[in-house]
Amino acid sequence: MLKFTRRQALTAGGVALIGIAAAPVAAKGAAQQIINDYLAGVKPQTKAIDLDVPANADNPNAVHVTVKVDSPMTPESYCKEIVLVAEGNPRPLASRFSFGPGAAVPHVSTRIRLAESQRITALAKMSDGTILTASKDVIVAVSGCGG
Amino acid sequence: MAAAPRIGINNRTPKAGEIVTVRAMVVHPMETGLRKRATGELIPRKIINKFTCTLNGKPLVTWNLETSVSVNPYVDFRFRATESGELKLTWVDDDNVTIEAIEKITVG
């Protein structure tokens, strides 16, 4: 008959926990892959970009996300794109906004759904090739991917 | 298709150089393709995957939506008033169903 010592029981429990945690880690790996692909070796800067997400998502089916990039929006210097990544969602890439070189202002909001507590990352690509980034953590009590 | 899009523009008669905010929402189920029916089969994906707004035919904003975007997708965006004309807002979903709306802007 098998006899577990306290230590063995704890170790077994720990291994089981790691197994449970592996699924969200995979999703985060996918998110990191998306971010790395987008950066393509460019080192992102954390200035001149503002990401506004509530710290607690009361309704995870519709979480209001606002991204604002500080850019003069002249033909010489403008923001080309803003990308939103919900790092813990089954499909982490949430949205991509592209701006025309004319009159657009790089300040957008939308509503996204979140599967679990996670980090939201915004990336902005500027006309000179620099990339700006900002991240915020959101706590989700109930999943917004009701299935 | 569904109900007409709801569009709010904070200033339809802006002065030149003023920033105009456009808020827009359409009714759409935004089915992710990840959910299952009670019988176990996957519900096929059907989302709006693209939104564009042009002013007199010139692109202001293009939005590529993914499955994370909420049901009845909402967006707000801004542009600097430079010329009078027509704002054209277009939503396209996975079945190529298109929703269009046109709004007039008069720069004073």
Question: What brief labels describe this structure?
Answer:
heterodimer, A: 147 residues, alpha+beta, three-stranded antiparallel β-sheet, globular, B: 108 residues, mainly beta, 7 strands
Walk me through the structure.
The complex is a heterodimer of chains A (147) and B (108). With 147 residues, chain A is of the alpha+beta class. Chain A has one helix and eight strands. In chain A, strands 2-8-7-4-5 form a five-stranded mixed β-sheet, covered by helices on one side. In chain A, a hairpin with a 6-residue loop joins strand 4 and strand 5. The longest helix of chain A has 34 residues. With 108 residues, chain B is mostly beta strands. The mean pLDDT of chain B is 94. Chain B is elongated, with a radius of gyration of 16 Å. At the A-B interface, strand 5 and strand 6 of A face strand 4 and strand 5 of B. Strand 6 of chain A pairs antiparallel with strand 5 of chain B, so a sheet runs across the interface.
- How do the helices and strands follow one another from N- to C-terminus of chain B? EEEEEEE
Mean pLDDT of chain A: 85
Radius of gyration of chain A: 19 Å
Largest interface, C-beta within 8 A? A-B, 33 and 30 residues
Helicity level of chain B, as a percent range?
A: under 10%
Give the total of beta strands of chain B.
Answer: 7
Distance between the termini of chain A: 42 Å
